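Support case: user asked for a sample of complex input and structure output to validate their parser. Sending the pair below.
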Amino acid sequence: MTMIFGVPLAVLSGQLLIGVINGAFYALLSLGLAVIFGLLKIINFAHGAMYMLGALVTVVLFDLMGVNYWVALFVAPLLVGAFGILIEYFLLRRIAGQDHIYSLLLTFGVALIIQGVLTNIYGVSGLRYSMPDLFKGGINLGFMFLPYYRAWVIVVALLVCFGTWFVIEKTKLGAYLRAGTEDSQLMQGFGINVPLLVSLTYGFGVMLAAFAGVLAAPIYSVTPVMGSNTLIVVFAVVVIGGMGSIGGAIITGILMGVIEGLTKTFYPPASSAVIFLVMVVVLMFRPNGLFGKEA
Amino acid sequence: MTMMKKLLASAVASALMVGGAQADISNNTVKIGYLADMSGTYRDLAGPNGLKALEMAIKDFGGKVNGAKIEVVSADDRNSPDTSSSTVRRWVENEDVDLVAGMVASSVSIAVSKILEENDRLGIISGSAASSITNEHCTPNHIHYVYDTYPLANGTASAVVKEGGKTWYMLTADYAFGHALESDVRQVVEANGGEVIGAVRHPFPTQDFSSFILQAQASGADVVGLANAGSDTTNAITTASEFGLTQSGQTLAALLLFLTDVHALGAETAQGIQLTTGWYWDMNTETREWSDRFMEETGVRPTMVHAGIYSSTLHYLNSVAAAGSDDAQTVRKQMMDMPINDMFAKNGKIRVDGRMVHDMYLAEVKTPAESKSEWDLYKILRTIPADEAYRPLSESKCKLVNM
């Protein structure tokens, strides 16, 4: 068997694929963060909580009303997105134009409150959510067993990432969005409702996080604390990619998934730190991140 | 205080007691500090419901001991030895706390027991697993009550090896508890003619286990042993089932699994998993009665840790009453002298190293067909007698043994 640094090639291929799958998750989460920061200049520390809410709402909707996975895939992000819009309308709007640090502190506080309240209600052991029947089982690729569900995650996550990038960077709506946040007075002069645009953009970023949460529900323990650890990693991904760079968030997300996966193979104890190590190195040489624009 | 002084102090105290000395309780208050993970990974197995169990014990005891008040303070340990150390230091130095109860993460317990030793206060550890707590880390100031990694390895690992699982691959949480459990499992597996052919140490906590499960699959070992706890274990089990680990002929052995974990996984996913436990709510009339009361208070069935917190608090208060003192060494001696007979343990005994030895149980998770309600999850396969379950004193590295 071919060996690479003492690891059989087959095992390594499996790890690479797993890395890409987890990377697609990171990409989806960091995309939402990048959209919110890139367009609104809000550092959204509530992003992990929104991801958790996506998963939790999926489970609760199923328990209370028997809402299935496919419906939840649309309904849960919409509900959580609407909640995001409320947060924007009642809280974030009041600190618009202030230093970034205020949005960071405010959203961090919101996240802690949501997490604390839900922990008291649901505990931390995790809620049960079974995989949709369609995705039970998997396929033997020769070098690894690939569960159908993971294959679905990678496809759908990449589609959503590409779609978002396309809308923001290549369409008229995207151009309005970018212009509206760049010079809101001018855009208002053209008769465009900028505050509404801002609300909807925040809501959309939150929806992306919640969508990732729905995707996570069948494979991870759904608990009120599931977002808190993920959040820090996703922030590092966004910083490495370049704060606000949509394409950067997607590419870096996948790249970091792979790097983390390889670390788990070669030196597991470092796997929780490797992304931060990369962040330090990148910031030393490119303070605006890999794909960030020069300030 | 040196060891000799402590012994002298306790000897004097006992002598006074024999003489029928009057109640000698400092500030006329027995103050108990409850320290546990109240918000993180280990919240459900101890956490706020453990505090409820502690309060139930105080209430059942009558709310006062020898006329002295019983006060309770509590804090979140945040699974951090640093945070816990500063909390406990404040408790013993400024707030005159006599007993620290609860304690879940082994790293927290080891750090806290050192502070208790420096200040000569008492600690009863109910949630932690590392057997090193009463081995190389033993102190004259703490007692380890509910279980430890030695019987976990002894019960589950030896049962699995005897059923033919000869080669093992370990997934180990990378901190004190995981290391202790892995090394205890290694010993048991090797003693029974098996072999640990590989291990991976994963960061604590880890959400995505797919990479580690893949490595375990590639190892070709008969058994994949999980030396982790809480959401790490449930995430690992869920991922193993997703990646078809058992279908490909490997067995999963969860070495530490709490009732709350199994409840979260559900009988569907967890069925057939063997585990070792110190207690189960549905064992007999006495355990059921107490659990019903606990459930009325909390809405959930108790874990072995909850039951252990209740039992140890009651035993502590009984000992304070019998000794007529809240002095740490006097009470510890009294606790060692009295056997423990309650809904938690029959003829439980606290040894000189601080280990409370009692019967342990090998259990199997019921199938969905066997399980009659959401908490009807275990069938007890066999009892592991106390003297067989725990590390014998003859193998102990504890400084208090053979003094």
